[in-house]
Amino acid sequence: MARTILVFYGSYRRDRQGIKLADWIVEALRARGDDATLIDARAVDLPILDRRHSDYPPGEAPAAMAALAATIAAADGFVFVVGEYNGGLQPGLKNLVDHYLPEFAWRPAAIASYSAGPFAGVRSATAWRTTLGAMGMVVTSTALSLARIGGAFDTDGRPAGEDGVRLDRAFPRFADDLAWWIDAAAAQRAKAAPPY
Fold it and tell me: What CATH number should be reported for the domain holding residue 113?
């Protein structure tokens, strides 16, 4: 059974490196038979948060915002590919997700973190765990963390070097955990809709 999984990425930087990880995760999920789609905050380009999607009367939200709301609401689960900016959240990704709330409810999320240095974005992953939980998502226990992202992929976008090998080895458990929670959440949503 193909699961619909959205892979969120949020860097706006000119020489962004995390897009390599986000693209690789999309392809790795597709190779497992899932319907995976990249949601790139820079490409969606929502304005700095003024009104959430749910703040607009039906049919009055900007077209890009409404289209993404429908896409999120139709998804089975999510992967958040998160870099670490000064020990915290990427502002572009945080701004994107803050436009939505009920669309994320009662669905699982997995976190894949990265950094240019040796710590693999773990402080950002910790902050995202709290944020995603507050938004009504169940965050899976198996994280994916990638250090030294600049050298972790070859020119064809495949994992390379010691960090890339670790990524390749860790991915199956990461994806299996997300798949289990997607199936469990779908069964529960079939019994009762979220109360908000």
Answer: 3.40.50.360
